[in-house]
Amino acid sequence: MLRENAEYLKNNTDYAILFHGAGGVHKWGQGLRGWSNWLVDLRFRKSIASAMLDHMIEIILYNLKKLVHALNDRIQIIGFGDDLGIQSRPQVSPKTFKEMLKPYYEEIFGYVKKHSKLYIFFHSCGSIYELIPDLIDTGIDILNPVQISAKNMEPEKLKENFGEQLVFWGGGVDTQKV
After folding, report:
1. What is d(CA 166, CA 178) in angstroms, rounded to the nearest whole number?
2. Predicted local distance difference test score (pLDDT) of residue 105
């Protein structure tokens, strides 16, 4: 059904087609362990976090293989999401991100890049300015949203520093103060 729906959209629109919901390891960890416990696991109980991340990546890659096979020539963009920031900073330090989360994103996005021509859309709310260079390294093409009310997420600053490497999708509305 998914393949047929994507085929219909491909044949009946001039717009880019995005499939969003391919997975997110950070939000899964938060959902399974609770927000505080997951952050403690990433920082101090790394063996627990790593074991969970290993299992999550198995599930995500299993599903991703099916999605890429079914949708590769029917859509243009595949979407992932993990809210990595809060209003004032990333939820994890850049060091913890590089050590604990980045390798998993590299594996997931690397699979997409190797087996398709799809652009990678990544959703993360909050102040993630410090993580953007590492997110670019993982292979993302599109960052959504640009939460302009979060610290260091001014559109001009993002465009100046990362505009040649990323497409910024959304962010024209301050969703925190509407």
Report:
1. 27
2. 98
